[in-house]
Amino acid sequence: MTKSSRNQGKNQQLTNQSGQLALSNSADNSKQNASLDAKELLHELQVHQIDLENQNEELRKTRSELDSALERYTQLYDFAPIAFFTLDANSRIIHANHAAAKLLGIPRSAIYRHRFIEWVSAESQQEFLNYLEQTLITKHYEINEFTLQLEDRSIIITIEANAQSNDQYCQAIVADITQRKQYEHELRLAAMVYMAIGEAILVADANNRILAVNPAFTQLTGYTEQEVIGQSTNLLKSGRHDQEFYQRLWSVLLETGHWQGEIWNKRKNGEIYLEWLRIDTCKDKNGNVQHRVAVFSDITERKQVEEFIWTQANFDPLTGLPNRRMFQERLQIAIKQAHRDNHPMALLFLDLDRFKEVNDTLGHDIGDNMLKEVAKRLKECVRETDTVARLGGDEFTVILGDLDDPGSIDRVAQCILEHMRQPFLLAGETAYISISIGITIYPEDTANMTELLVNADQAMYAAKEAGRNRFCYFTRSMQESIEHRVHLTNDLRTALADQQFLLNYQPIVELASGEIHKAEALIRWQHPQLGLISPAGFIAIAEETGLIVEIGDWVFRKAAQQVKQWRTNFDPQFQVSLNKSAVQFRHENGMYNWPEYLQEIDLSGTGIAVEITENLLLNISADISNKLFSIHHANMQIALDDFGTGYSSLPSLKSFGIDYLKIDQSFVSKLGFTPTDLALCEAVIVMAHKLGMKVIAEGIEMAEQRDLLLAAGCDFGQGFLFSKPATALEFEKNLWSKD
Questions:
Q1: Among 180, 205, 537, 668, whose Cα sits 20 to 30 Å from the Cα of 98?
Q2: Which helix (H) or strand (E) holds 14?
């Protein structure tokens, strides 16, 4: 082999080796490149994987939040206090929350089987369907009101429904507005009352500037609303009250927020009137004054009526002198003053001699004129500080207080005798009378007010027995009558145990119809030696000794038994009234469980009426008030006896539930003779009816008296014209034997 051949071979060999080497390098490079690409791809995959994991985590978080939000929404929806419904066009309930189920009163699980219209009132069902249809068409919120008729009640609801553009359903919010409607009704009613109420109402701000008034204010004051708005409340001041009055008013108002009382104010035309005013203060939550509301009414006329009634109750309408009630009050004051000043006091009891002859011969009108003149002459004989009173009929009293000189008693008595001896010129007629005077001295004769009057009365009778037209002092020789009283008191203590009492009954007639469904029980004492004694002969003793409590209880039980028998046999509505002394009310056991006794004998309380006197209502205690209320609680009625002879305030008549007023026979007896007594009876009747009470007139003896009372509106009458008091058997025979 040649050298060139060897070289070619070597070169070829080198070339092959280079090629192999190049191939080997190329393969290595490819491997390296592939390895790099795989690493990059793996890296990218790892990055994507991380991104996906992050996205998945975000999705998980979002889903969790959505799940939580959905759960919260579901809870809010399910437990919301407002009722939510999803309804279709036929009112079928698709969804509903707990409040919705509670509203309809059925379990939530059963609510989807119902249509909402099942609860809509029949008269509103078509309107409700139209409402749903309109809501689905318009896709707008619609609000309407309907009445739901539930199982136990009816309620008023307001529905607020809406539907989205593609919805086949509408969502409805249902709220019970029954209470709101009631509040609105009450507000409208309050506004109507405010406008229509008869009492004037004024609303002022904290600075006493008028903010609002009602029509009654305009009617009462004459000012229109436009004239007073923004004005000071001082606009109404009358000028009759001093500054001290208003200072006291504001002191109470600022301290308590309230004030009420009588006040004089002035109308627009300058007229002064008396009003009853109540002021109340409205404050905000911080205690600052926002408004003051004044409610007032004109009581001028009522005050005049009250003063008239007070005058009639305290003063004799014929002579204008204090009557028995006022006399007793002034006598009590005179005794206290005499005791305090350590000065004697004299009581004179006067009775006209042969006055009945004047009435019988010259007539009652002349007699009344004489009594007026007697009152005038008596007042001329005493000082202004002394009291001249008329007890009734031709009986007068004189209280002489603060006597420095006992001899002045004789001078006054002699002056009276001389004045009465003078002729009386009456309507062209001349009449002559005299007077008998009984005198007793405090504390020489007695320190007891009742005994003073008894002593003076006994001394007056001694003067009459001595020949009339004279005065006589009470002496110890007159003690015999007092001893008689003591014996009567002792006998009275055993009279109940010895069954010496009996009850008579006098009918009370309904004047308009003449029917008799009532009677008054009147006690009598059948004394073994003295015979039949009327209540006037022993009731005062019974009250002084306290025996009236046991006697009164006997009267109640006896009368209750009798009315029970009459209701069973004759008249199921019959009622018996009986007198209850003030002493019984004041005594701890003065009623002896009367309501329980009525239950025991199965008698309704309506079968009994309890008659009380006006004096019981003076300075009434809580115990007496409770007993009066217990009478009403037992369905018994209360009658005020001898009305007009004592004193009663109108608030007392109303507060203690008086059912009947009994006009005293002293007023009834003069009906047809004096217009004053008729006017008084008419005033009492009108007042009683205004206060929701019935009126019973006592002592009716003539048909003319009955007719006048009936014309005046009197409800019932009692007296000899109809019947004298009779035993139970006589009463039954006279009333029911004809049936």
A1: 180
A2: helix 3-79
Q: Identify any residues that bridge with 192 across adjacent strands, giving them in sequence order.
A: none
Helix (H) / strand (E) element for 297: namely strand 289-298
Number of residues that make up the chain:
739
Question: Chain-centre distance of CA 588, in angstroms?
Answer: 27
Q: Is the distance from CB of 486 to CB of 712 less than 8 angstroms? A: no
Residues 6+ apart with CB under 8 A from 385: 401, 402
In angstroms, the Cα distances linking 264 to 214, 241, 271, 310 are 20, 7, 10, 21
Asked whether the beta carbons of 501 and 482 are under 8 A apart, the reply is no
Residues near 35 by beta carbon (within 8 Å), at least 6 away in sequence:
none
- H/E run at residue 454: helix 449-465
pLDDT at 620 over 50: yes
Above 90 in pLDDT, residue 56? no
As separate numbers, helices (DSSP H) first and strands (DSSP E) second, the chain gives: 24, 26
Contact criterion met (CB below 8 Å) for 436 and 464 = yes
Can you tell me the distance from the alpha carbon of 227 to that of 222, in angstroms, rounded to the nearest whole number?
10
Q: Averaged over 169-191, what is the pLDDT? A: 73
Compute the mean pLDDT over every residue in the chain, rounded to the nearest whole number: 85
Quick one: CA torsion of 377, 381, 382, 388, rounded to 10 degrees? -30
Nearest in space to 370 (alpha carbons), one of 381, 386, 359: 359
Question: CB of 416 within 8 A of CB of 410?
Answer: no
| b/e 471-482 (16+ beta carbons within 10 angstroms → b) | bbbbeeebeeee
Percentage of the chain surpassing pLDDT 70? Answer: 88
Separation of alpha carbons 82 and 441, rounded Å: 88
499 burial class (0-12, 13-18, 19+ CB within 10 angstroms)?
A: exposed
**CA-closest candidate to residue 501, choices 521, 525, 520:** 525
**What's residue 2's pLDDT?**
47
**Angle at alpha carbon of residue 186, lines to 182 and 188, rounded to 5°:** 115
pLDDT band at 431 (very low <50, low <70, confident <90, very high): confident
User: In 499-604, at which residue ranges do the beta strands (DSSP E only) sit?
Assistant: 501-510, 516-527, 531-533, 575-579
State pLDDT tens for residues 359-406: 877 888 889 999 999 999 999 999 999 999 999 899 999 999 988 887
The string of DSSP letters for 48-86 reads HHHHHHHHHHHHHHHHHHHHHHHHHHHHHHHH-SSEEEE
pLDDT at 32 over 70: no
Q: What is the rounded CA–CA span in Å between residue 293 and residue 199?
A: 12
Residues 80 and 102 sit within 8 Å (Cβ to Cβ) = no
Find how far residue 552's CA is from the centre of its chain.
Answer: 31
CA pseudo-torsion sign 606, 610, 616, 617: positive
In tens, the pLDDT along 217-263 reads: 988 899 998 998 999 999 999 999 999 999 999 999 999 999 999 99
